[in-house]
Design brief:
Helix content is 34%, strand content 13%. The longest helix has 12 residues, at 9-20. The chain is an alpha+beta fold. The radius of gyration is 20 Å and the shape is globular.
Length: 179
């Protein structure tokens, strides 16, 4: 055990869970697990309408101040973490670590339904929503629901004037690229 200077038994037990990787607290919405109840509670805010922190560059909102700070790094030129294999750079060490697994070829996470494998556990969890029938993401405009956040975001563009994809031939813009 590390010398963290802990005084209460519950703090010692929580610290031990951090070191062992034991994750006994699960989000009741997405089933992501945590070793500390406080981290799970903070995480659960992402599923609520509470997003009091806004990026001063793009105005994207966040339920967590630290998440907003991490996000803001993407607007800067700060990318201090580089992949050892391909030299791609990242603003977050965790993003670099998740990326590096791609080069290993390891895909240790398998969908319980169709057995499709993934290198990232969160990608597998996101995929599994397709099979579950759960549709936790709702359009802010028409309330249509989606199993994937990316599909909801793409759909929401239909309600706006944004057309981020352009045809290489005729230059017509649309919400979705057709490749």
């Amino acid at each position: 055990m590390c010398n963290e200077g802990l005084n209460h038994q519950r703090d010692i037990e929580a610290q031990q869970r951090e070191h062992t990787g034991q994750r006994q607290y699960a989000c009741n919405v997405c089933e992501k697990t945590f070793s500390l109840k406080s981290n799970m509670k903070r995480h659960q805010l992402i599923h609520s309408d509470q997003h009091p922190y806004a990026c001063n560059v793009c105005k994207k909102t966040f339920s967590d101040k630290s998440a907003m700070k991490r996000h803001q790094l993407m607007h800067s030129d700060q990318r201090p973490y580089a992949c050892n294999v391909c030299k791609k750079t990242f603003s977050q060490k965790s993003d670099m670590k998740r990326h590096e697994v791609i080069h290993s070829g390891q895909r240790p996470y398998a969908c319980n339904v169709c057995k499709k494998t993934f290198s990232d556990k969160s990608d597998m969890k996101r995929h599994e929503l397709i099979h579950s029938g759960q549709r936790p993401y709702a359009c802010n405009v028409c309330k249509k629901t989606f199993s994937q956040k990316s599909a909801m975001k793409r759909h929401e563009l239909r309600h706006s004037d944004q057309r981020p994809c352009a045809c290489n031939v005729c230059k017509k813009h649309s919400v979705r690229s057709r490749t």
